[in-house]
Amino acid sequence: MKLIAYVSDERYEALPDVLLEFEKDGQSWETRSRASGAVYAELPPGNYRVTLQKPGFGAKRVNFSPGDTPHQFRLLSDSLLGYAWPKWLRSGESAEFRVHAVEQYHLELWRYGLGKELVAGLGWHDEHGPRATMQITPDGDYTRTGVRWNEQGYISPHHKQRVTAPPRSGLYYFQARTPSGAVFSFPWIVAPVAPSAPVAVLASNLTWNAYNAFGGRSNYIHADEFPPTPTVNSRQELKRYNDPNHATWGAADYAPLSFDRPEPINHLDPGEKPTDPIEGRAACHVAPAEWRLLAWLEQQGCPYDFYAETQLHSGVLDLDRYRLLILSTHPEYWTRRMYDRVKEWVFQRGGRLMYLGGNGLNCEVELPDESTMLVRNGTIRSLWPEGIGAESRFARRHESEAHLLGVVFTPSGMMTAAPYRVEAGDHWVFAGTGLKTGDLFGQASLHRRCPGGASGHETDKRSPASPVQTQLLARGLNPDNGGAEMVIFETPSGGAVFSAGSICYPASLLVDEGVSRVTANVLRRFLG
């Protein structure tokens, strides 16, 4: 018997006991996958039609020709998932919702701000054929190419399911539910046709994609490429867990990551409120956490336009038509074009920047097309400058982000949280707050992964690359001198930058009076 293939699910986990039938020229061969997901068979050379079946997963038929290396068959579990395509657009443009369900589902569109506004009920969806709303994933590593849902079987235009983006810019969510009680929600970034506010807020959709492991790869698991065999036990097989010298980014090159995939990390429960604690491992630094910033802006009565980072890259976002740009929780991955555009706007044309996150602009990505990104991690030994060969991955390829932000991420204090201590109580950012030098603020936080305060999860500090006029306002009390350094500086053109330097920061805006008042002072001063 010869090893001809493996079978895995959408997490690249090995699937045992999958029934496979190979058909060719009126003949049929049958086998089952083994405990490792391996498929052994003796097949004459040629082209085969293969049928795969396993309870709890969607059956499918594919064409297959045995080759020198084992084929990677992929099955999709019976679940409820979805995404909009495109995931970002402008008001009045339309997108297709691509939902995977094995029973009928109901869909609604909501806008997420200080409150949740039901925009439209999109009806119940089902098909006449059995399980015809079930999607099909391609074989192989579709984290590179995308899942391309609705391409198979929905060839009639009557099957296409499109929605026009509402007139108001903002963060929207599609919410799907089934009669059996399954729920899934997925975000949609709607930018304005033309600027409608003095403030532009960026969604960190490049970071969302870097951390999205749907399909079995992200920039943190199998960052460079898939191993040759699917996973049976992560603790035993992945170098991340069993190699003490393993570096997440130890390769020279990294396979692309497609945006054309569901993002389970961005799911929000239908009953969740912006003042609720942010539960789970991932939600605290992606869209659910960014929602808290948008809710706070609306609480402050501050109108804003919402954009994807990719729209800054493409030029849809015209910075010169805004007074203020706000970066949110964790904008870790940026293109060089984005960075240069913002830096020129701030230093040469008087733009104002509020960076309210942590570990931002830390690594360069490239966007070869509208659906794919390439992460330029480089070969590094650790997250410290000596392991990178520069202050950051971005600095290694371009320049330190501290030139623009005033601060740069370091691993000290990582995965801890603490309040800030005021270092410059006479500065105008603390006016009307009652805070003076030595006082603490930022004790309250919705961040449940790293509870303890507004300075935390991952934090930034000043560096030799920080502009000389950078002023320290407050410092987090995290251990190992790892507290976020809150800084501010102005540029000769009239531009200005305020940096909070902490992923946890937006999770405190709605629940900590000190954080809210300090941020409101900066917001109003920068808007002039």
Report on this model:
This protein has 528 residues and is an alpha+beta fold. Among the domains are: 2-74, Carboxypeptidase-like, regulatory domain (Immunoglobulin-like, Sandwich), CATH 2.60.40.1120; 254-527, Rossmann fold, CATH 3.40.50. It has 11 helices and 32 strands. The strands form 8 sheets. A 9-stranded mixed β-sheet has the order 18-16-19-21-32-31-30-26-27, with helices on both faces. A hairpin with a 6-residue loop joins strand 5 (48-53) and strand 6 (60-64). The longest helix is centred in the C-terminal third of the chain and has 15 residues, at 513-527. The radius of gyration is 24 Å and the shape is globular. The N and C termini lie far apart (75 Å).
Second rung of CATH, namely the architecture of the domain at 254-527: 3-Layer(aba) Sandwich
Give the overall shape, derived from the CA principal axes: globular
Residue share in helix: 10-25%
Summarize the main sheet: 9 strands, mixed
| DSSP strand content | 25-35%
Q: In DSSP terms, counting alpha (H) and pi (I) runs of 4 or more, how many helices?
A: 11
Mean pLDDT, rounded to whole units? 97
Radius of gyration: 24 Å
CATH topology of the domain at 254-527: Rossmann fold
How do the strands of the widest beta sheet line up side by side? 18-16-19-21-32-31-30-26-27
Low-confidence sequence ranges: none
Please state the structural category: alpha+beta
N- to C-terminal distance: 75 Å
SS elements, strand count = 32
The CATH class label of the domain at 254-527 is: Alpha Beta
